UniProtKB/TrEMBL annotation:
Enzymatic class: hydrolase
Main localization of the protein described in the UniProt heading: cytoplasm
Species assigned in the record: Reinekea forsetii
Protein name: Isoaspartyl dipeptidase
Record carries keyword Coiled coil: no
Entry similarity comment: Belongs to the peptidase M38 family.
Domain of life: Bacteria
Length: 391
């Protein structure tokens, strides 16, 4: 086994640790210390980071790895994710999901894609189900999918407040959440319910109704697209203060912004200013999802594709434009999502943790290098390992 030492790194774990050396062996971080010394006859390679930032690889909790879309017909089905899409965005852990279409997009191809990404070197997981109810699963049971399929960590995206959803009642959603909760408890997984929140005035009402009428806590739900509008953001801040976690979507388009979406980084600044708990806020890419623009009648006007570069872009904007601390923003794309999904080896730089890390320019936050599971995928800003069929 070749050992690697990263020297003179300015480490954010995501907490600021100062200048620290890291020892990597296999896919693990074996040690972290200032002026690390190692006496060994094993092969050792060293990299002088020269004061560059070293931080955890990004944990993306919502990626349509097999593609999404289809709201404008078969020709609007979005393309599937490739390995380099994740690497360019600093994403080392992905969570795949189906969306609107669960007829031509299936769980079988979703699981196959997740396993393929794992073979190519990423860490990859998925949600069973999709927008609709009754829930489609692989085994015929939400509990069984979560308990018996290694990569399945929850259910989603279940759609509420959206004309594309199944218009679920709170009682129907409660039954789904209860199944996911028990499946997670019995398998030591998150069993989380990822919730797509659309643009209707109902907003998060269904989630609050479940908490009011049952013993299922708000923390069982993981609503995304909370920056869709100023009104939904305010409801999401209340949800966060009541004990829930909220997710902001980093991918956007000018058309969606013109309809009132709050930029992801700006939503974080506004939420924190109103006393939201920073440990219960995350960003996700919604990568390779369709980003549709609908008119008042629900007809499709335009459609674009979610980008996996978006987490890095919003990190830049939050630090340089919103003037938020790098450490605080980093939590929203590393340790927070990893904790919520119970991916205990992800989202942090620590001894014994997985060797998923990024090297960033300390001034511009430009991405210089990516390591996933102890292997380099980008060096000096150039991708060095691509997917099987990438040119």
């Amino acid at each position: 086994m070749t050992l690697q030492i990263l020297r003179n790194a300015r480490v954010f774990a995501p907490e600021a640790l100062g200048v620290t050396d890291l020892l990597i062996g296999g896919n693990k971080i074996l040690a972290m210390a200032a002026n690390l010394e190692l006496n060994s006859n094993l092969a050792i390679t060293e990299l002088d980071c020269a004061g560059q930032i070293v931080c955890p690889g990004f944990v993306d909790t919502l990626t349509h790895v097999t593609g999404g879309g289809g709201e404008g017909g078969f020709a609007t089905r979005t393309p599937e994710m490739q390995l380099s899409d994740a690497i360019r965005g600093g994403v080392t852990t992905v969570t795949g999901a189906l969306g609107t279409d669960a007829v031509c997009r299936t769980h079988l191809e979703l699981v196959a894609k997740v396993k393929a990404l794992k073979e190519e070197g990423l860490s990859a997981y998925f949600y069973t189900g999709n927008y609709h109810f009754p829930v489609k699963t692989l085994t015929g049971s939400i509990q069984q999918d979560i308990m018996l399929i290694e990569e399945c960590i929850g259910i989603g995206e279940i759609a509420i407040a959206d004309h594309r959803g199944s218009q679920m009642s709170w009682a129907e959603l409660a039954r789904v959440a209860a199944e996911a909760r028990v499946g997670g408890m019995c398998s030591l997984k998150a069993g989380i319910v990822s919730v797509h929140v659309g643009g209707s005035a109902d907003g998060l009402k269904t989630l609050f109704d479940v908490a009011e009428h049952t013993n299922i806590p708000l923390s069982q739900f993981y609503p995304t697209h909370i920056n869709r509008s100023a009104e939904l953001l305010q409801s999401g801040i209340g949800f966060n203060k009541a004990g829930g976690t909220i997710d902001f979507t980093a991918s956007s388009t000018p058309e969606i912004a013109a309809q009132g979406e709050v930029r992801c980084a700006t939503a974080l600044a506004l939420a924190l200013a109103q006393g939201a708990h920073s440990d219960r806020i995350t960003f996700s890419t919604d990568g390779h999802a369709s980003l549709p623009e609908f008119n008042a009648d629900g007809d499709l006007v335009s459609i674009k594709v979610g980008s996996m570069d978006s987490l890095l872009q919003e990190l830049h904007y939050a630090v340089h434009q919103e003037k938020l601390s790098f450490e605080l923003v980093l939590k929203a794309i590393t340790s927070n999502p990893a904790r919520i999904l119970k991916l205990h080896q992800k989202g942090r730089l620590r001894q014994g943790g997985d060797a998923d890390l990024l090297i960033l320019n300390p001034d511009t936050l430009a991405l210089n290098a990516v390591m996933a599971n102890g292997q380099w995928f980008m060096v000096n800003g150039q991708i060095t390992r691509k997917g099987t069929f990438e040119a």
